[in-house]
Amino acid sequence: MRAPSLTLEGQTALVTGGSKGLGAAITRMLADAGAKVIAVAREQAALDALCKQHERIEGWTADVRDPAFHAALADRDLDILVNNAGTNRPMPMADVPADVLDEMLQLNVRSSYLVAQAAVRSMLRRGQPGSIVHISSQMGHVGSPGRTVYCMTKHAIEGLTKAMAVELAPHGIRVNAVAPTFVETPMTGPMLADPAFRAFVGQMLPMGRLATPEDVAAAVLYLASPLAAMITGTSLLVDGGWTAQ
């Protein structure tokens, strides 16, 4: 038998939140592996800049909360979905206003579910195997002060991953999660700018460094590739040992 490889030649992938940070790194790595990659984001300028970096990257300006996007996605031929769009608004639980709670549930849970549902409809329509990778977090496995809402939403994604995997395995659709530790991105930059918080993060990471976007993208590529053909329903922690303690 020929050994499976990381190549994604001939496959079409879609990455939500794909124009910057983790999403941009994932988009580039999947394109380098041979996939045609559709990067979805709301900011046209950022998408245009990303598309110029690789001939196999296509930009799709859309809001992942928009029902019209969900309908259009279900009509696209898709082999791989990377469900990456999300947000965080850290604050003490007693101070979380209802609108922040609703915003994070809407984007991190409801939209993630509906985007995954649309991708599943695409894959079932085609009758072809597929791979879905949810971008979760180490906070989907543990708790942390000031992150009650974020932890709740990421624990939800971990549960969704397992349930989807069980239901969709008979159709050849694999569903997994990647759970990163802190990565310096536009979303986490303001948090990590606080010296005390950055020191706390450093103390919690046995590997002694933050993850890079490429560390996370490599895990996504592995789970999306033929090398992970027997892997479904799991969460790959890219956390430098944070949750091992």
What does this protein structure show overall?
- GO terms for molecular function: carbonyl reductase (NADPH) activity; L-xylulose reductase (NADPH) activity.
- This protein has helices at residues 21-32, 44-51, 67-74, 98-126, 148-168, 189-192, 195-204, 213-224, and strands at residues 12-16, 36-41, 57-61, 80-83, 130-135, 173-180, 235-238.
- The chain has 245 residues and is α/β, with parallel strands linked by helices.
- The protein has a single domain (12-186, 212-235), classed as NAD(P)-binding Rossmann-like Domain (Rossmann fold, 3-Layer(aba) Sandwich).
- It has a seven-stranded parallel sheet with strand order 3-2-1-4-5-6-7, sandwiched between helices.
- Helix 1 crosses helix 8 (213-224), helix 3 packs parallel to helix 4 (98-126) and helix 4 (98-126) runs parallel beside helix 5 (148-168).
- It is globular.
- The model has no long low-confidence stretch (mean pLDDT 95).
> At the fourth CATH level, what is the homologous superfamily?
NAD(P)-binding Rossmann-like Domain
Instruction: Spell out the helices and strands N to C.
Output: EHEHEHEHEHEHHHE
Give the oligomer, counting copies of the same chain as homo and different chains as hetero.
single chain
Average of per-residue pLDDT values: 95
The domain count comes to: 1
CATH class: Alpha Beta
Task: Specify the structural class.
Answer: alpha/beta
Report how far the terminal alpha carbons are from each other.
40 Å
- What proportion of the residues is helical, as a percent range? 40-55%
Radius of gyration: 17 Å
- Main β-sheet, spatial strand arrangement: 3-2-1-4-5-6-7
Instruction: Indicate the CATH architecture.
Output: 3-Layer(aba) Sandwich
